[in-house]
Design brief:
The chain is of the alpha+beta class. The protein contains 1 helix and 5 strands. The structure holds copper (II) ion.
Amino acid sequence: MTNPSSRFYRSALNLLPRQGLLALALASAALVAMAQALPTAEGEVRKVDKAAGKISLKHGEIKNLDMPPMSMVFQVKDRALLDKVKAGDKVSFTADQIDGNYTVISIEPRK
Ligand SMILES: [Cu+2]
């Protein structure tokens, strides 16, 4: 047990539990990401206000916000989202409450 290769094997063995922990950490990160995935809601764009970073939507039920269908104004997480849609577009979107403000997180025109 004094040859150099036994040292190699021992350090390889030492690595195994750490890789197990890493796999566990990755798996739980994936679970957290899944739990945070927002359900898609449907809507129709009423007005886009790029200067204010706001969008007016007539929307269907938003399950994660416990919100029935209505028309309302949302903030947007990223103003670039407002370049993807225009008034009159039917859209699929996700929304969440950020610092107390209803905020569109993602939005895509629907075909
Ligand atoms: Cu609403």
